[in-house]
Amino acid sequence: MGALAAALTSCGAEPDKRCVDPKSYDSLLGYRVLSAARCSGTTTTGSTASGRWYYGAKVSGRYAEGGTFSRNQAVDRGGFGCSGHGTSGG
Known about the structure:
Layout: H1 2-10, E1 17-20, E2 31-32, E3 52-55, E4 58-60, E5 63-65, H2 71-77
């Protein structure tokens, strides 16, 4: 019963995310991580935000790799969400 409750509450849960510079991709390092403010519309200096949210990535130092820019894909990959790709047992 507890496992079912955990599965139901994780449906739609927010995956881990980082704000990254989408133009900074390096094939060895990934995307450069920015402050979260750079993904929130406008920065404290009034300039337009230049980052994008990157979900489910491995972070190493100032770089993130192996993630996706799609929140829905990150939720499905992590085993959370409501895609219906599970099994049920009795």
